[in-house]
Automatic annotation (TrEMBL):
<dbReference type="Pfam" id="PF26019">
    <property type="entry name" value="HTH_TIMELESS"/>
</dbReference>
<dbReference type="InterPro" id="IPR044998">
    <property type="entry name" value="Timeless"/>
</dbReference>
<protein>
    <submittedName>
        <fullName>TIM protein</fullName>
    </submittedName>
</protein>
<dbReference type="GO" id="GO:0000076">
    <property type="term" value="P:DNA replication checkpoint signaling"/>
</dbReference>
<dbReference type="GO" id="GO:0006281">
    <property type="term" value="P:DNA repair"/>
</dbReference>
<dbReference type="GO" id="GO:0003677">
    <property type="term" value="F:DNA binding"/>
</dbReference>
<dbReference type="GO" id="GO:0031298">
    <property type="term" value="C:replication fork protection complex"/>
</dbReference>
<dbReference type="GO" id="GO:0043111">
    <property type="term" value="P:replication fork arrest"/>
</dbReference>
């Protein structure tokens, strides 16, 4: 990038610095396929998650998400995905 010296006058995040090095738009190319790999929640999965949450939320001394994960119909869900979906619902 011939005009990198101008870019360096201003504070950059790590993502912006990577984009300067690899070329503008490269970050969007990398993020697109990664985000599309996550399967959306189906209404049946949401209903199952809701039921499991109500079942395990009152158990004292136990992590609710850890109790829910083994019982989900889709085994590929991560803890983060489950928490994010519960917050969204």
């Amino acid at each position: 990038n011939k005009k990198a010296f101008v870019e360096l006058l201003f504070w950059k995040s790590p993502a912006a610095a990577t984009e300067m090095i690899k070329g503008y738009g490269s970050l969007q190319d990398e993020e697109g396929p990664a985000r599309s790999r996550v399967a959306p929640w189906t209404p049946q999965e949401e209903q199952e998650l809701r039921e499991l949450y109500w079942k395990y939320k009152e158990v004292e001394g136990e992590d609710v998400i850890a109790a829910i994960l083994p019982h989900l119909p889709a085994p590929g869900r991560t803890r983060r995905q489950v928490v994010k979906q519960l917050v969204r619902m």
